[in-house]
Amino acid sequence: MAIVTRPMMKPAGDARQADDRAARTATPDPSAALVAWRRLLREDMAREMADPRWPRALVGVAVVHFLAFMVCQALYEPIPRRDLRYLAVWFAELVAVFGVMRLLAGRHWIRRSAAVNLAAKFWTTFLILSFSLVSLNSLMGIDPPWFKSAWCTLSTFFFASLAWLFSPLFFIPAVQMWATGLLMATFDQYSYAIFGVSWSLSLCGVAIRLRRGR
Asked: What are the angstrom distances between the C-alpha of 66 and each of 62, 69, 102, 171, 192?
């Protein structure tokens, strides 16, 4: 008489656990993917920053920014009022910055690297929010003009974001801009000059670091 053996059936709970483990094994780990993405982003930025044109371009932007805010400081009046000359100076600075970047960093500098393109998007967002602060201050009342020291909060966020993405060394200008905001709030009559000098020093510091790194 033949003996028929039946395969041992696993409990339903064990089968579900095995399926869950198989699914977790097949699905990529999101944290590992983010770490890999960040590593690739840093490598891409490192390759692009090896180009000797970048330190010169950053110094050029620092000079433009310094000159623009020195003009704003010269236009400063103790009693604030709406003055379209500031808007003209900031627009001229923006055009000059793009001109300097095109001249010193290359024609397609913003599209040569995914990492540079991402940093440029952060910078564009910073500019949009900065102009938003000025508009809000104008609508709410220009006395006192609180938007200038608030620029430093945005600057701190900008550099801190670059620090998380690319290098912890960006925390140095992030802290510097935080301290700059305190100085601007304390010495409001010199706020344009303080902001212009601080930002220019930050850009020159990044340029020096890039030059030494090469």
From this structure: 6, 5, 19, 22, 10
CB 189 within 8 A of CB 78: yes
pLDDT in tens, the chain (214 residues): 555 555 555 555 555 665 556 555 555 677 888 888 889 999 999 999 999 999 999 999 999 999 999 999 999 887 666 778 888 999 999 999 999 999 999 888 988 899 999 999 999 999 999 999 988 888 887 677 888 889 999 999 999 999 999 999 999 999 999 999 999 999 989 999 999 999 999 999 999 999 887 6
- Please list the alpha-helical segments (H only) found in the chain: 12-26, 30-49, 53-74, 84-104, 114-140, 147-165, 171-186, 191-213
DSSP string over 174-211? HHHHHHHHHHHHHSGGGHHHHHHHHHHHHHHHHHHHHH
Q: How far apart are the first and last CA of the chain?
A: 85
d(CA 29, CA 8): 34
Cα dihedral across residues 40, 34, 113, 59: positive or negative: negative
pTM of this structure:
0.80
Show contacts of 177-181: CB within 8 Å, 24+ apart.
177/152, 177/202, 178/152, 178/153, 180/152, 180/155, 181/149, 181/150, 181/151, 181/152, 181/153, 181/156
